[in-house]
Amino acid sequence: MMAATGQVLIKGGRVIDPGSGLDEVADVLLAGGSVKAVGKNITAPDRAEVLKARGLIVTPGFVDLHCHLREPGFEDKETIASGTRAAAAGGFTTVCAMPNTDPPMDNASTIDYVMRKAAAEGAIRVLPIGCVTKASAGKELAEMAEMAEAGAIGFSDDGHPVADGALMRQALTYASAFGLPIIEHCEVPELAAGGQINEGWIATRLGVKGVPSAAEEQMVARDIALAELTGGWVHIAHASTAGTADMVRRAKERGVKVTAEVTPHHLTLTEDAVLGNLNGGTQFDPLTPDAYNTFAKVNPPLRSQADVEAMIAALAEGVIDAIATDHAPHNRQDKLSTLDDAAFGISNLETALAAVLSLVHTDAVSLTRLIESLTLGPARLLGDRAPAGLGTLAKGAPADIALIDPDAEWVVEPAHFVSKGKNTPLAGVILKGQVVKTIFGGSVVFDAKQGKT
Amino acid sequence: MTTVRRVGIPALSNGGGSMTSGRKNVLDLDDFSREEIEGVLQNTAAMREVLSRSIRKVPALRGHTIITLFHEPSTRTRVSFEQAGKVLSADVINVTSAGSSSKKGESLYNTALTLQAMNADIIVMRHPHAGAPHFLARHLDSCVINAGDGAHAHPSQALLDMYTIKEKLGGIEGKRVAIVGDILYSRVGRSNLWGLLKMGAQVTLCAPPTLVPPDFLRPLPEEHPFASVRVTHRVEEALEGADVVMALRLQLERQASGHLPSLREYSRMYCITTRRMELAAPHAIVMHPGPMNEGIEIDPEVAHGVRSVIDQQVTNGVAVRMALLFGVVTPDRSPLGRSEAGHNAAGRSATQ
């Protein structure tokens, strides 16, 4: 590992920097923890480390707006140490940590604890998200001003919505003082009650309760109306339905302060994954013992093909601002049960890039737009809470880099995940596109050649 | 009157079917072919014959262990499987568990490992969660028979219903079957749908729209396995010309959960009454998987009337379960023939 103040020259890669519109073979020089220069034929300074990147794509390190590091409280599922290393293995150099920990991050001291812990044990940058309400109970506002001072980049009761519309109105109004978003998990509790997977034929035939798209859309509609009313900023977490994409599009056109993210799984998988037939077959084939695949149980649920297509279109045209992983690691036991008992969530950090690259391989989204939605797109939403230039390769930006081999094929083997959470519906699937190296602050924090340990 | 005491099972059929081609689990009827269902129904006839003897015991499953694992209260299904196993000379161990959630007590996975260690040949499982039998089947070497999982499936009930229809009406193909009641939550209804459609019946579902799966309220695509199913919300329309009227149990909590304004209104609109039965075919039979809410989904006069075959359903249940237990444990045993002997056995039972 190189010293953070050392100089690194990345030579001969295809440099894609959506921030400057750059997409060409070039060299990138890092020094003192920042990007020093990007250009053709940069000569390596004395004592500089040279990384050959011929055939690789060089991008700013990825920024994840939504991930669950589980610490404090659920260290059996993930820790800040393991989660940030998993992030690095996925090309991420900045992750925003959701506050549904135990104790929850609903006050300045837990925010502070997580930031200190991350500084001491984390492999990359961790930016904390605070609760909207105390203990995410949806009753009283949490102390947002103090959390903002302590470094929170936004507020969310993720896992639950702020069900009370009047309280949500106050949250949006209050948070507008610091220019921070309320990150809403949009799900009307009564409509989603008991739901395990998407409502529709698959839920019907499996005999499990479904969650209708309307459970998400009703709250998206409410929150857009409240953002319009208050002038506050609502960020729609893990958008999953065609109707949501539509409402966000129209709200943005009206100038409402609304932004949105989408997960890799809502861009690439349908509810069919619950049938356990990723290798083929239709919704009408007989069930096998592989059905009721708990690894495909996630909230919001995997939706229909039409929804997936709508999410891809919304991402391509910029209605959706960012790809966020909603990395939700769980221990083995949490998923080793019936669909009704299993925990929601997918361990996502290490498969995110390769999964969404499939959209580029099929020409559904341009490579530039895809990289933008992993870098500049999310970084923009962090504003001045993030270091200047985050998510770009501008001079002076953090020396955070991902080196990608877009064509390398690999088989997803959860046992080899760095994350403690081995819960993925992609086990055994061949993905195309691999993170080769991740550099954070000028240091290599992940190198595929050295293996994941 | 024969006085010969037979000790084997007469003329088990493979019906051209795959109860003899390695079926390990019975999880639902969606993966049964028509031939396989016919094979089971033929074997059921043979089992009926065994049950009609003065000494009801055959050694077919001697030395085999069956564990019934019931995570939900049940009397008739559990006893039916237990009796089926005992008639076939299997050792039957009953495990019941009130608390079913893995969140408290032993997880389903640990239960599965324990059962595996006991070398059970067959596990008969009932569980409040859909897919619990699939979970066992995925993790265990034992054969798994689903005795009802959540709102998903209850294949042995559907098979005994079909056997009863065949016995009473001579066949299933082309028969008009009206299934009336809580389609949304009924595992009996679901498994019957798969089975009856494979056997060529014309099925009509009847319930208020709140008790029908939402996707059934819209036109289904042509390739949909249930595309031919008719859905109506008027019981008179469903019963018109029906050969079989199957009433489903209405869970009484449907009123509190907002599916129904009142049980009284449900009963007025959907109860199977003598008057309404006049709309059905003259030979029509009435079925109910039990336990009944008499006076809500079915009028006592109908439930205990001449058209009711509800008691026969229970009797046939034991025979069907014998056929299933036998089928999964001895997939490789050569049957005595699919031949005339098999048909004779079925024919004999049918006329007894």
Written description of the protein model:
The complex is a heterodimer of chains A (453) and B (352). Helices cover 28% and strands 21% of the residues of chain A. Chain A has 453 residues and is of the alpha/beta class. Chain A has a single domain, classed as Metal-dependent hydrolases (TIM Barrel), CATH 3.20.20.140. In chain A, the strands form 4 sheets. In chain A, strands 1, 2, 3, 4, 5, 15, 16 and 17 form an 8-stranded mixed beta sheet that branches. In chain A, helix 8 runs parallel beside helix 10 (305-316). Chain B is α/β, with parallel strands linked by helices. Chain B folds into 2 domains: 18-153 and 315-332, Rossmann fold; 155-311, Aspartate/ornithine carbamoyltransferase (Rossmann fold), CATH 3.40.50. A 5-stranded parallel beta sheet of chain B has the order 7-6-5-8-9. Chain B has a 4-stranded parallel beta sheet with strand order 2-1-3-4, with helices on both faces. In chain B, strand 5 (176-180), helix 6 and strand 6 (202-206) form a beta-alpha-beta unit. Chain B is globular and about 50 Å long. The chains are: A alpha/beta (453), B alpha/beta (352). The interface between A and B is medium-sized, with 25 and 35 residues.
